[in-house]
Specification:
Distance between the termini: 58 Å
CATH class of the largest domain: Alpha Beta
Order of helices and strands: HHHHHEHEHHEHEHEH
Number of helices: 11
CATH architecture of the largest domain: 3-Layer(aba) Sandwich
Number of strands: 5
Strand content: 5-15%
CATH superfamily of the largest domain: HUPs
CATH topology of the largest domain: Rossmann fold
Largest sheet: 5 strands, parallel
Helix content: 40-55%
Structural class: alpha/beta
């Protein structure tokens, strides 16, 4: 217990010392570890005005302080990963509406990095065979990735939700206010796989905003708007 408390104390002190730009670089390296085709510097240049020279200086500083491994590709050390609080949230996101935006904003506010898992069409249909899906999973991923609160969008892995959780290794799993999974169910299944994460349930100021209701009212005429 004392070791765990000291570890949290250490991370809290270091988090206080690092700059927002440092955390942005750590985030870029973490996301690159999930999808190697994404290079950290390119990821940052799409979101910030960082120069190549500044990036190199920051990386040298982080290697010296033990946040990043001196390797190619760059990898976070245990300390570097501990400086990020990664939040994972999932959904189908077939028709993005204000309820989704509020939920993603709330999820982002719970940590530093928001990873959104977009359900595969096969997974969504397995849960609800009557569901009408208008967009394929690739388009839904692109749509979610364009929302500014989202740091990285990923299509769910084949298998179960927990295969994706093992891959992302989030510090927090956020559930939407109307998602069918329960906090206890997810906690038990994560514990069985040795996944140490916290599960929270998010609220929404507009609980009446639901994809099912929108689809019921618009039906197949959704593209005729």
């Amino acid at each position: 217990m004392r070791i765990e408390l000291n570890r949290h104390y250490y991370f809290n002190i270091v988090k206080f010392m690092i700059e927002p730009s440092d955390k942005a670089i750590l985030t870029a390296i973490y996301i690159s570890s999930l999808e190697p085709e994404i290079l950290p510097l390119e990821f940052l240049k799409n979101r910030t005005t960082i120069s190549d020279d500044m990036f190199d200086l920051k990386i040298k500083y982080m290697i010296k302080n033990g946040f990043v491994e001196n390797s190619d590709p760059l990898r976070l050390t245990f300390i570097g990963r501990g400086l990020l609080k990664v939040v994972l949230i999932g959904g189908v996101f077939d028709i993005v509406h204000p309820g989704h935006i509020h939920t993603l904003k709330d999820a982002k506010n719970q940590g530093d990095v928001l990873v959104v898992v977009v359900a595969r069409s096969s997974t969504a249909l397995r849960i609800n065979k009557q569901r009408k899906i208008y967009h394929n999973e690739t388009l839904r991923k692109e749509l979610v990735a364009s929302i500014r609160y989202v740091d990285y969008a990923i299509i769910g892995r084949e298998g179960t939700l927990y295969d994706t959780v093992e891959f992302v290794k989030p510090d927090i799993i956020a559930l939407g206010y109307d998602q069918i999974h329960t906090e206890k169910e997810i906690a038990v299944n994560c514990a069985k796989r040795g996944i140490n994460t916290r599960i929270i349930r998010l609220n929404t100021p507009i609980p009446g905003s639901k994809s099912t209701q929108i689809k019921e009212e618009l039906g197949h005429s959704i593209y005729d708007i």
